[in-house]
Design goal:
- It is a single chain.
- About 35% of the residues lie in helices and about 25% in strands.
- Helix 1 packs antiparallel against helix 2.
- A hairpin with a 2-residue loop joins strand 3 and strand 4.
- It is an alpha+beta fold.
- It is built from 3 helices and 6 strands, in the order ββααββαββ.
- Strands 1, 2, 3, 4, 5 and 6 form a 6-stranded antiparallel beta sheet that branches.
């Protein structure tokens, strides 16, 4: 199979996380054969949710989601306007302030790359098994 991409989805609000999950499900359902397994699809949707949430929360309140399918791999790319790079934090088990998502994305993905944008901002790409 050759690469298949979805149109970029611009997201601007917290309800955008649900919109991003829906966009990911629609993209995955449209891949055809060989169909992606349910567990792999759930993993992709979880990573989309985490990356979009992080971009909205820490990246300036707006982001763009791009999805692509390559042989054996699904690429999730989230672009935001902040030059601040994601960082590992100690998860907060008391106050509920987070710290789990970036660890989870790195554990679930085969490869995670953060690329600074040419005019500021960054793109976070996660490659997941198909």
């Amino acid at each position: 199979m050759t690469t298949m991409s979805a149109e970029p989805t611009s997201l601007r609000s917290q309800s955008a996380v649900a919109e991003a999950r829906r966009a990911a499900r629609v993209f995955l359902e449209g891949l055809g054969e060989p169909a992606i397994g349910r567990e792999q699809a759930d993993t992709v949707v979880l990573v989309v949710s985490e990356l979009v949430t992080n971009a909205l929360r820490h990246g300036g309140g707006a982001c763009t989601l791009r999805l692509a399918a390559h042989p054996g791999t699904i690429e999730v790319a989230v672009e935001d306007p902040s030059p601040r790079l994601p960082r590992m934090r100690t998860p907060d088990l008391v106050d509920g302030t987070g710290g789990f998502g970036w660890h989870m994305v790195n554990d679930l993905a085969h490869h995670v790359v953060v690329t600074p944008g040419p005019e500021g901002g960054k793109t976070v790409r996660a490659l997941l098994p198909r």
